[in-house]
Design a protein that fits this description.
The structure is a homodimer. Chain A is of the alpha/beta class. Chain A contains 14 helices and 15 strands. Chain A: InterPro entries: Ald_DH/histidinol_DH, Histidinol_DH_CS, Histidinol_DH_monofunct, Hstdl_DH.
């Protein structure tokens, strides 16, 4: 792994370290645009054709109504694990509900924000050979808490046309209403436009490959009237380790990210002196060799790097610049550094908080901003499935107090009808008072 | 009213009408594809002509008709046609804007100055002003007072949106929470040139200030003498804006998204604007510029629900205050129940429109607006939810009690003394709101728009011992062995330490 010492880098060298590998969007867009258009025009027929072409699965029915599907039977220990995860994820997201509160900064002028669920949402769960019930939970649990009425979960079927039973278990548990057995850009397009059988959704969530991501980006700018959670790229982790971090744990954390795929981003930041970097690298080699997905991991590691920082503060400053999807802070008294963290998707503090716990079951969401988007996006949350509507209600008294100021401002802005909507009312109030006195 | 009661009422209504069924989530037998039914504004009247009653108003020596429909007589498809906004030809706008976006990426300030000269007819030496270095503008005192009052209300409403950090420990030793962090640098677009919009400056800058964004760039097209509106500057200074970019249109959005020699690069861009501004925002959010936007924006719109208690001159005034924004404003009047004096409303529309400086814009907007008759409040709100208006005025008796039935709207105005104008300027709510039907999935600008929430978890040894085995099981199901190992190695070490004690 390449290694740098922060204090020796120039500004431009530093800037280039934070950059992610360039993704050639325009060529991906040129592949995806025709699929998006085709699904719009030909609906289910197009989706089934692409599913046969890419997934090698021939389907009669692209859509299943979840309540009509038989409950899958899971291995006892597996069911228990997903139940525990469900419970923690549910608790964490339910705690995000905000109470409605009226603000009356001026007497008689009452304002508040009320939450309403987005009516129909689409959740993308990668499938085919991948098995990702954890992603099904991460997306459907907050949708369920929010109260979304239509929840479509799209996931590519395996070649025999079935979907992973653990995904189905989680979908049923979390109140998913429809399963769309399709993947890729065609699944995103089906949910965005609606088809003969697939409900049209108003917002689409979830990780996915470049084609899925490109479809989301294209459709959010299209006539489909759909929003997306965030742009997504290859998964990434930045680990900050000091001399207290155990080398084989550090190596395990780096590898758990690297195994996602050859384009995963893995960064190790050494905070201060006394860290046995050799031991970490030895552990990386040793553990990587015995991994089933070792080949992916090794490829990912070839473009990962190590950064030496003078102390935890310099480490965190670099991490803020990099804005990682996952940030592991494996240092002494990790909690006290939390206030310095500015940009990250999800943070893991201390020696007993590997990224895996957040990926599966701590309760936090694992659908997080990558590629540096952590600078301005947060991960999926309860709010992602809601919209907040503002409500105002003025009494006669409040209106009489506020009205003249509104008239002044409307006049300044040359918006006479805006002013009049106030003036006419004020005149009527005056007239009523005069009439009654 | 509970959710169950609401659902029962919806079912009862749908049993007796055609169209309300569209609101119940589609099942296999309901095929709804709105994209099949997207009439342009000129064809809508002909396709529904059997059900319409035209109502004429006169304004600016022109005579306009407002199409009127009775909801209970419409089919599903016809109602869906009503909710559709006029189609915007994005691809042709994109083809105009893409070259500007690319040019600014390459040539920075030089490109921006050229476009400013071309479009705003202004030659500028300096594009970016550092706000603390600018002299305080002197405002007319009662204007200053008005903006101070607005600032006070907007500040209070947005500051109240701060959420407290709370740790969730659903399982002992497994602590999780969400912490808010401001987005470091933001760009706020305030239309300018001939328009004077200090209210928009407040709406964008105040929540940015409360959030604690370190760099706040306000972009606004300069007047022909190269100056910016002093009220905009006043609001900008008051709300802590750090930089002013004297530019507009797609070039201003691009400058902030890429950064230039003098303009700071921002991470998120906010604000209303014309089609070119909106297109630039949409293009750039999908580009390598690494920037996000608040929401897609379209022409401003209002839906007014009025019953027999609403005063006709007020209803007309509210419709016109939206219509005056521009010829493509969307204006919808929903009559709830009987006894509403529609004739009076139309007379008032004509009368008020004729004496408006912006009457010509208003009358053009009214020409493609429409009136809908609903049997009662519930039917009216159901239609409003379908339409998903940017602004929703509920000018009916006991308006508050209908609040919980509202599902889709940007901002809601309840009762007879709550015209949209108060929200546009000073009630405290934000006036940068989703249009075009985007209220179905976007909310208006808020404090949260300027923050991102980072999740934080911290496990004790005990917590990992408790949670770890489940994580290992799930990682194994998913075939992610290294994920499993990150847990099992730690559990082994914990065990080993116990044994050695």
């Amino acid at each position: 792994m390449k290694s740098y010492r922060l204090s020796e880098l120039s500004d431009s060298e530093l800037q280039s370290l934070k950059a992610r590998p360039r993704i050639d969007f325009s060529s991906v867009f040129s592949v995806v645009n025709p699929i998006v258009d085709d699904v719009r025009t030909r609906g289910d027929a197009a989706v089934k054709e692409y599913t046969w072409k890419f997934e090698k699965a021939k389907l009669d029915k692209a859509i299943e109504i979840v309540s009509e599907l038989p409950d899958p039977v899971l291995d006892g220990a597996v069911k228990e694990a997903f139940d525990v995860a469900f419970s923690n994820i549910y608790a964490f997201h339910a705690a995000q509900k905000t109470p409605e509160r009226i603000v009356e900064n001026m007497k008689g002028v009452r304002c508040k924000r009320v939450a309403r669920s987005i009516n129909s949402v689409g959740l993308y769960v990668p499938g085919g050979t991948a098995v990702l019930p954890s992603t099904a939970l991460m997306l459907s649990v907050p949708a369920h808490i929010a109260g979304c009425k239509t929840i479509v979960l799209a996931t590519p079927p395996s070649q025999d046309g079935t979907i992973c039973k653990e995904v189905l278990y989680c979908a049923k548990k979390a109140g998913v209403t429809h399963i769309l057995k399709a993947g890729g850009a065609q699944a995103i397009a089906a949910m965005a436009w609606g088809t003969e059988t697939c409900p049209k959704v108003e917002k689409i969530f979830g990780p996915g490959n470049q084609y899925v991501t490109a479809a989301k980006m294209i459709l959010q700018n299209s006539e489909a009237m759909v929003a997306i959670d965030m742009p997504a790229g290859p998964s990434e982790v930045l680990v900050i380790a000091d001399k207290h971090a155990i080398p084989r744990h550090v190596a395990a954390d780096l590898l758990s990210q690297a195994e996602h795929g050859p384009d995963s981003q893995v960064v190790l930041v050494i905070a201060g002196e006394g860290v046995n970097v050799n031991a970490i690298e030895e552990e990386l080699n040793k553990q990587c060799q015995s991994l089933p997905r070792g080949e992916f991991a090794a490829k990912a590691l070839t473009h990962s790097f190590i950064v030496h920082a003078r102390d935890v503060l310099e480490s965190i400053n670099f991490s803020n610049l990099y804005a990682p999807e996952h940030l592991i802070v494996n240092v002494e008294d990790a909690e006290k550094w939390e206030g310095f963290i500015e940009n990250a998707g999800s943070v893991f503090l201390g020696p007993w908080s590997p990224e895996s716990v957040g990926d599966y079951a701590s309760g936090t969401n694992h659908v997080l901003p990558t590629y540096g988007y952590a600078r301005m996006y947060g991960g999926v949350s309860l709010d992602s499935f809601l919209k907040y509507i503002t409500v105002q209600s003025l009494t006669v008294e409040g209106f009489r107090k506020l009205g003249p100021y509104v008239e002044t401002m409307a006049e300044l802005e040359g918006l006479d009808a805006h002013k009049r909507a106030v003036t006419l009312r004020l005149e009527d109030i005056e007239a009523k008072f005069q009439f009654s006195t």
